[in-house]
Amino acid sequence: MLLALMIALQAATPAAPAAAPGPPPRYLQQMRQFGMTEAGIAVLQRLSAPDPDAPAYAARRQALRDRLRTIATANPIDVEGFAGLLKAEAQAEGEARVRVAEKIAETMRALPPEDRQIFARVVLAQSARAAPAPAATQKP
């Protein structure tokens, strides 16, 4: 997830003209502190190019959110339209997650065996931080 987050952020933010492609130096320093080899760092640098489709996915999700907001403020609310857009949004998010999982798997395969556990732990730690807290249920 961390690598995917970096890729998404790189795709969403305009790059400075002199910016070098690849993960942020702080991320690479952290990976070194966790014990990743320089060969592993080189793999991360090589495979961390921004997803060329990320802007299109982000635009699609934003368009869905905008349409949801429009329906939510209408009176009366188009319940079926709202439900359909929620499903479309969930599908778009699912597609993005699949792309992230594929990129993580590609990176894991390319890493030297001694670096795979370090990378896996970072991915799991990031996904644990990104997981939303369960919603509190209220009884009527």
What does this molecule look like?
- 71% of the residues lie in helices and 0% in strands.
- By secondary structure, it is mostly helical.
- The protein has one domain (2-11, 20-130): Four Helix Bundle (Hemerythrin (Met), subunit A) (Up-down Bundle).
- Helix 3 packs antiparallel against helix 5 and helix 4 runs antiparallel to helix 5.
- The longest helix has 32 residues, at 79-110.
- Residues 1-18 form the signal peptide.
- This is Periplasmic heavy metal sensor.
Short synopsis of the structure:
This protein has 140 residues and is mainly α. It contains six helices and no strands.
Write the layout of secondary structure elements.
Layout lengths: L1 H11 L12 H9 L4 H10 L6 H20 L5 H32 L2 H18 L10
Helix pairs in contact: 3-5, 4-5
